[in-house]
Structure prediction request, 453 residues.
Amino acid sequence: MEQQKKTRVGNHKNKEPIRQVKDAPDIDRLSNLPDEVICRIISLLTIKEIVKTSILSKRWRPLYTLISTLNIDDSNESRYYKCNNFMNLVDRVIFSRKSDTGLDNFSLKCGQAVDAFRVNGWIQYALWHGVRELTLKIWQKAFNALPSVVFTCKTLVTLRLELHYGFILRVPMNCRLPSLKLLHVAWFIFSGDDSVRRLISSCLSLEELIVQECQFQYINKFTVCNPALKRLTISSYEDADISKKYEIVINTPSLVYFKYRHSVAKGHSLINLNSLVEACIEFGPGTGSSFSHTAVELMKGISHVQSLQLSGHFSKALLLGNDPIPEFPNITYLKICGFHPGWDRILVYSPFLETLVFNFESASEELESSSNGISDVTEEAPYCLLHHLKSIKILSFHGQQVELQVVERLLKGAKVLENLAIRLKAKKRQQLKISKELLALPRVSMKCQVVII
Prediction:
């Protein structure tokens, strides 16, 4: 024992002494960076912080006048006297900038306290200085018109307009945005059919259009006609009575992605969508069987799609209506969100489907009220089940009887199925029982592997 202690002590004594490292002298590495890099860093700050950088050192003093990105946000300036100081600060930053400094990105977010006249001036300043990316989120009700130069700016590549609910967008006759590639509009009211048509058709290079929660009460025909457009999103859950009053016309031969989150309109005319690859369709509340014809019109227009996601209240209009569902000859991926009686009708018209995904996340009430997961339309297994369907994923599986019927139907019919993945959403004490029931279901495909997560 004593020998071991001696050895330990000896080993401790033989260790090399710890070297003390002298504190390195303070070095201002940030100020040694090139002006271009520092300006890039400054541009990520709020406008107040940008001004504060000018007091760090003489080197930093002029740099904020050289930045090419301005982000103006008055979220924290609710009181009038604070907002007045804020507006003066914005004026100081804008008018201190070098006249020959370009402006790549200009973002303006303001509420009720900001003066509408000054807002108009800031926007014009950005446009006169060749801004490429312009974001306007304006909730000042006194602001009721965009500067006309917004619609004729040759340098704009990205335009985002999020304007207050009462704002009515009027697009001038001379509207022309030759460089615009992304247009995102939200919340405001379109003044009429001509404004919509004029705005979209004047963007000759437009690749992506997002229409988010805009108001259509003055619209008879909402027309999207643009040969260059590749991505289109229409997202607006209006009252069903309003959506019954207008039609949606889409003529976009280059479109590859289409997202439609909307109450079914009075009519749909989708033309030249043969290039479409992916579509996400979500019908809003109030979409009943009376919308069957217009819902089928919409689906006919996207029938060449390869990947399709269905969600919302589409079952009554599309699956249980009297109008026949169009065939989807190119579809290989289908995702169905929620539980919808008659879901297997879609499989009949998707002969080359390879991957099927169910998401029962928000379907608990529908599952409880359903006694059968299979419609009476198809007695024989659809063609895709017999020859092409190789992968099935079921998300948020609650373990209810109707869900088990869906899985049983698929396992009995899918002859070339290779894998079935099921993600359980049940209490832990129930998961083992549900897993045993799932694994005990007969499967026609000998290759099929069932994985329960």
Q: What stands out?
A: The longest helix spans residues 80-96. Confidence is low (pLDDT under 50) at residues 5-10.
